[in-house]
Amino acid sequence: MNVKRLTAGVMAALVALFGSTVGAMAQDRVSGPKDKGLWLQEAASEQAAKIADFNELLLWIILVITAFVFILMFYVMIRYREKANPEPSKTSHNTLIEFIWTVVPIGILVVIGFVSIPLLYYQDVVPETDFAINVTGNQWNWTYAYPDHDGIEFTATVVPDSAFKDAEERAGYEADLSSHLGRPAKLNARLLDTDLRLVVPVDTKIKVQLTASDVIHAWTVPAFGVKLDAVPGRLNQTWFEANELGTYYGQCSELCGKDHAYMPIAVEVVSKEEFAKWVESAKAKYAYAPTTALGR
User: Fold this and answer.
1) Residues 41-89 pLDDT 10s
2) Average pLDDT over residues 21-39
3) Whole-number pLDDT of residue 290
């Protein structure tokens, strides 16, 4: 039984114990934060899956250490209490114990490093990609540019809270979003939906080049395992390859001003055929068009 299966089994048992339905967790496709969510968002890329596996490994290591410390504490409190041990030992050194408590932590760190260093390398080194997307963080929205697709560029801004209270306003935003995507679309999440979405094809390696126009932001999509700072005057880069169709949400994860909480990220993963059609449509709408990139 590997770490992932063992963790999944324990999580299912905990959910059952607290009276929740395991089936609800299994069937609910997580594309963003969920109310009363208990675990990480479901991975939609190999990178995110590797991060989830590493997280689970660390949790089991922490669990073993915590259990050992608590057992040791209670053993010492009971075994060496005054009543059971009226003549306390004056021993101040124990070579074997000192050797163990030095070597064992080193071994734990070696195990963690053996797993984490290749993962860091996997995330940090950008492989050969199919195309690039330039992402610029602004106070408080995101500008997306497709330099490999005739200069498509647009700015995505949070859908206001009022649209989720007024049916007519919501319908207007959904109509604009449907026009942007080239197919019917619905708003899914208050404070996470944007008026336009970043559109990418499934099973495609994409390089993301990040910068900012004002202050430091961070482009974060948990389901893709992507989180990187966008720094003014600096070009950072990362990559992802989404392996499932759907809509995925993220947020700016760097405190960037008063509207930091209103700077979401919405990514639409479509088939390669649908992406090709979207590119042709987007060229007519956004290619080389002036952008309102400098915030609101």
Assistant:
1) 888 899 999 999 999 999 999 999 999 999 999 998 998 888 888 888 7
2) 55
3) 53
Distance CA 116, CA 58 (A): 10
- SS3 per-residue string spanning 256-294: CCCCHHHCEEEEEEECHHHHHHHHHHHHHHHCCCCCCCC
Handedness of CA 7, 12, 13, 15 (dihedral sign): positive
pTM: 0.78
For strands 217-221 and 226-230, give the pairing: antiparallel
Residue 110's pLDDT is 95
The first and second tokens of residue 147, run together, are 């330099």
Residue among 267, 278, 210 nearest 244 (CA): 267
Return the pLDDT at 11.
Answer: 47
DSSP β-ladder status, 152-156 and 198-201:
unpaired
Q: What are phi and psi of 20, to 5 degrees?
A: -90, 165
CB of 57 closer than 8 Å to CB of 115: yes
131 in Cβ contact with 80 (< 8 Å): no
